[in-house]
Amino acid sequence: MRTTGTADAVSVLVIEDDEVIGQHLEAGLRSNGYAVAWTRTGGSGLAETRRLPIDVVLLDLGLPDMDGIDVARQLRESLPDVLILILTARSEEIDVIVGLDAGADDYLVKPFSLTVLLARLRAHLRRRPAGPPGPSEPVRIGDLTVDITARRCRLGDREVELRPKEFELLVVLVNHPGQAVSRETLMARVWDENWFGPTKTLDVTMSSLRRRLHAAAASSAVPLALPEFTTLRGHGYRLEPPAPGRAGPGC
């Protein structure tokens, strides 16, 4: 493992076993002001996240000791707010979906341009708040409560753990109850107005959000009134508040 960069820079952990790609990434990121730690195996990468404060992980899927998908899952469990970008030679759609569903925020198919990688990093980092947000009242729809300031989601009296993009997607929809929100609007607000990747990322995140809320509702000892997330084919999504007196899984 090698670490380079200044102490106050955004810290990037590169988990990549290819020597040429690793050196290229380290040099390119360092020259653009990032602090870089580079490891060649999944195990050593996970160990580095316990030793160093990490903001971004660039993760190769074809690692010598473990599958990158398993690394992504473990990273997301231990570091829910870290930005994970997958670097992969697997270009099939199912591989991309599996990676995103494992917790990655973005992916790049090899070979890729360093310029595009840097642009994607800037885009993702722009979406992150520079400081603590101002106070705002929690939004309640049925038995779903979303506290934007505290970044907490509750169903009834139980907290539901959401990944960062799932929470941000939910925030946009609960702020527009009953309204159709286009895919373009959701991509711009949750990801970035200059998003380079496919909008399939949105569908994967929505599917995961639905599953988490549905599972939380199903495990409740009492019926819960949930909003519905309606897919508007060819347009986007709409959050529909539950009808008065209605309770049960509505996602």
Structure description:
- This protein is α/β, with parallel strands linked by helices and 251 residues long.
- It is 38% helix and 22% strand.
- It is built from eight helices and 13 strands.
- The protein has helices at residues 19-31, 42-51, 68-78, 93-101, 114-126, 164-174, 183-191, 200-218, and strands at residues 2-4, 11-15, 35-39, 56-60, 83-88, 106-109, 139-141, 144-147, 152-155, 158-160, 180-182, 228-232, 236-240.
- A hairpin with a 2-residue loop joins strand 9 (152-155) and strand 10 (158-160).
- The chain is elongated, with a radius of gyration of 19 Å.
- The model is unreliable at 1-7 and 130-134 (pLDDT under 50).
Write the layout of secondary structure elements.
Layout: E1 2-4, E2 11-15, H1 19-31, E3 35-39, H2 42-51, E4 56-60, H3 68-78, E5 83-88, H4 93-101, E6 106-109, H5 114-126, E7 139-141, E8 144-147, E9 152-155, E10 158-160, H6 164-174, E11 180-182, H7 183-191, H8 200-218, E12 228-232, E13 236-240
Parallel strand pairs: 2-3, 2-4, 4-5, 5-6
Antiparallel strand pairs: 1-3, 7-8, 8-9, 9-10, 11-13, 12-13
Helix pairs in contact: 2-3, 6-7, 6-8
